[in-house]
Amino acid sequence: MKSIFEIAKSGLRSAKRSMSVTSNNVINANTPGYSRQRVQKSPNGVELGQTYLGLGVNIDGVKRLRDQMNDILLHQKQQNMGYLKEKKNINSKLQAALVSDSGNDLDSEISTLFDNFSDLASNPQDTSIRNNLISETQQFTTRLHSTSDHIGQISNQDRNFAGQTLNSVNKLLTDINDLNKSIKQAKAKGEPDFKSLDIRGEKLSKLSKLVDFERHETKTGAVEIQIGGLKVVDENKAHHIKSEVDNVNKKFRLRLNNGHLIKPSGGKLGAQIEMYEKGIPTIKKSLDKIAATVVKKVNGLHNKGYGLADNVQRNFFNPGKTTAESIKLNQNIVDNPNNIAASSVAGEAGNGEIAAQIAGLRDKKIIGDTTNNQNLSEYTIKTISKPGVNLNGINSKVKVRDSEIQMLKNQQQQTAGVNIDEELSRMIKFQNAYRGAAKVMSSAQKMYDTLISIVG
């Protein structure tokens, strides 16, 4: 008789615990990061000789349904997605700085500059052509100034945003370390802290979008995190990461308190650092090269010629201003258009040989490197179109990565996500189980009462 009571009691406990866990699943169906839970059970009984006597059901514990390998793969894909999206964002800004909707871009300004020298070669004494040449050249230099300034602003924004991203990374590492402590304490007591595990999972997911890392779960339940091969969260501590910025040489270093340098290669932070140190400076260097080449090549011909005002040979551009930020016309040219040298012979007002030679620079391969020289228009077009070319490649990768992430999220949802219909059906099953156990208890009570009445 006693065994029947124990069986009924275990059934009531099992159904009650299962109902409680299932109800919690239903309530948290829309809670971000929540992983559904299941009560783990096993039959209870003893062997008496060759007979097995059932004694009800044991509650072995509650299991959190989560595919850890899926999480690791998802974090890896999200690290790459964070990297790609941030590179896309910065390249979009660079493209807007270099290319306009009107089509009147830097390559067009260079072409117009040579067109005006060609006009001057045909009519070297025409004052209106000389004035127009000065005006168009000033537009060219202004375009270089504004483009260089815009690129500089993007660089500064990127540097500041990288600092903000690093702050977010440090905050997440601290949060994960705090959750580690709670999870370790609970595991040591034999009572898993599912709430902290779910929150830690969300923190790791957020971290994966910001920076690339490797994770390792210890026997105590803590998760250790490495960035660039160095531990930033260990069994007992989160290590603060600080930035060291060299704005002159465009270096953004990350260093731990112990002095070790960290070099992230993925996530939002990895992209921001890469663009600050390499991507944006490459564009700026190309713009400076365009400015320096124009100044050097035009001056190299112009200072061999003569204007209409006197026989003094002058530079067309200020030779000390050779960057995109500083390029400037010679003030003597601006003050007196007749100082523009069109003639190759002093005193020959109708000679346009020098102007023709300068106009001919448009077709000469005078810029690039020793293995691949190009003319100015080709080099300029390649420079201003580079962010757009990068965007095309990034966009195709983003589509592939997004598809992979959605697939992994769907797979994880099948394992960890709460299906309301499924949970409600389980609630009905547990309600029936509870009623069944209660009937067993009631029947056992009646049997006991009958037995007592007989004995009495």
Written description of the protein model:
By secondary structure, the protein is of the alpha+beta class. The protein folds into two domains: 2-65 and 420-450, no CATH class; 72-403, no CATH class. Helices cover 61% and strands 12% of the residues. Helix 2 (68-98) packs parallel to helix 6, helix 3 runs antiparallel to helix 8 and helix 4 (127-188) runs antiparallel to helix 5. It is rod-shaped, with a radius of gyration of 38 Å. The relative contact order is 0.15.
Across the major sheet, the strand order is 3-4-5
Summing up helix and strand content along with how strands pair, one would put the structural category as alpha+beta
Assembly state (oligomeric): single chain
> Count of helices?
10
Count of distinct strands: 10
Which outline best applies?
A: rod-shaped
Q: Which sheet architecture does the biggest sheet show? A: 3 strands, antiparallel
Q: Which band does the percent of strand residues land in?
A: 5-15%
* Structural domains: how many: 2
Average predicted local confidence, pLDDT: 94
**Helical amount:** 55-70%
Compute the CA-based radius of gyration: 38 Å
Q: Which stretches of 5+ consecutive residues score pLDDT under 50?
A: none
Following the backbone from N to C, one meets helices and strands in this order, namely HEEHHHHEEEEEEHHHEEHH
Query: What's the N-to-C terminus distance?
Result: 17 Å
